[in-house]
Amino acid sequence: EVELVASGGGLVKTGGSLRLSCAASGLTFTSAWMSWFRQAPGKGLEWVGLIRSAINGGTRDYPAPVKGRFTISRDDSQSILYLQMNYLQVEDTAVYFCGADLSDNSYPVDYWGQGTLVTVSS
Amino acid sequence: DIVMTQTPLSSPVTLGQPASISCRSSQSLLHSDGHTYFSWLQQRPGQPPRLLIYKISQRFSGVPDRFSGSGAGTEFTLTISRVEAEDVGVYYCMQGSQFPWTFGQGTKVEIK
Fold first, then answer.
1. Which among A5, B6, B33, B37 could bridge B104 via Cys, Cβ 3.0 to 4.6 Å?
2. CB A44 to CB B50 under 8 A?
């Protein structure tokens, strides 16, 4: 059974940094394309970024609101996905979810993990 | 960016009756590789989203066959043939054909 568990959320001041982790199990992590998403309180879903598998170059894509501030990385030896968030703003307050794409067929996301709450205060 | 617009935003339904949700994209979602990367997600209260349908009409593993997807180009529909109590939640459409990936606003399905 695929399991994705995000952690590392918490309360941070504007301008601060935080690193989230997503521990994956039940999948071949090395071949999975991994993503981060977020959901502000009471709001809809927003894509935060993608990192491809190493065999596909390990390249990354980000949407404009986080590009240059957020960095996705992965440790394939530990099956852990990371999200380094810098220069945090109040509007970054959200529950952050990680997602996995295990198959080209059901791209872009097959499985979603439990989220972790990030609160940015001024 | 591709804008995804869902209707309705709220759908009170009677148990055992059908329900449908529409999603319109601001541009065609047909990718240059010939596939349309359009998905439907379900988010039950307090839970992360769950993939229901991918590539417009393909049911994901473990998804009951009362859920079906249809559409093409810019117009898509999710149909629940007979709503059950466990179907309560918010349903989102999502496109992965073009970066940035974008979502509809969500449709809340509740029991009358």
1. B6
2. no
